Amino acid sequence: MLKPMLMTPAWRHGAMTPWGGEKLSHLYNKKSPGPQAGECLELSAIPGHESRDEDGRTLTQLIEEHGSALLGRKIKEPFPLLLKLIDAKEQLSVQVHPDDDYAREHHSKLGKNEAWVILHAEPGAQLIIGLKDGVTEDDLRQAAKKGRAVEALMRKVSVQPGEVYYIPAGTVHAIGAGLVLYEIQQSSDVTYRLYDWGRVDKDGKGRELHLADSLNVVDLNSRPTPAEPGLVLSDERGRMERMLDTPYFQLDRLSDCKDLRIQSSPSNFSVITAFSPMWIAWEDGELKLQAGQTALLPADGYELSLTGDSALLASPHVLES
Length: 321
Hints:
The protein contains six helices and 22 strands.
């Protein structure tokens, strides 16, 4: 049996995330590699941006070593999930993501269905989630060609900490300024940038836009609303709420844990990210997570006891036969 594995994140920062800030260091004591540290990849098998265990082994190396004992008997390649913490000091570009079919045909990669959990929100912070009613593909095409005109078509939503939004592929979306998020998504780095607010680098050059692909995959009618949690359990040992159950992943919120027991599944791995100090104990060991730290919970693992105030528990979706 395999014990829980504390993961060390990879980062996207600097020119890769010109909108990033310093809140991940302030809120979770993250050791960012430099300024504009926008994305902390807590669990990642993306080449060049892989998370590692305490001994420095990449997620890919761990999978090669442990195989189905780590992943689960129903998890096949490619690795299915990517988990991030995101600090948006400024607003991100307006994007659209492809589904699996389009991404495989054009990039030989997975599509990108994702979800956001709002961890911190400055007053007035907003998300862009979808387009306004009645916007046509030609409206979007003409506005995007003009640039700033696309802003008038976007649906802006004020958000609060604790809210959860599922963003299906094809949804026009952007993270607004002043937000810190937990993001769970399919393991894909395929992103189509529709609009970038006229942002330029120090040389006056803007980032590449992908208008044709954006229009090919956009769902004009996708307007997600906050997820409604469902209670899984609540007793003297703690509370578990099912925040999302999608075709790609499940997400549970854990709170007020006092020896809350969770059992591994031979079908799939799970991933826990703590947002308060969290003790994970098993029959012959224990692991303490600080707020903002993530542990990979192997499929062939121990029954675990969790003690702490707040965490998110994620797993890939599998079909039980």
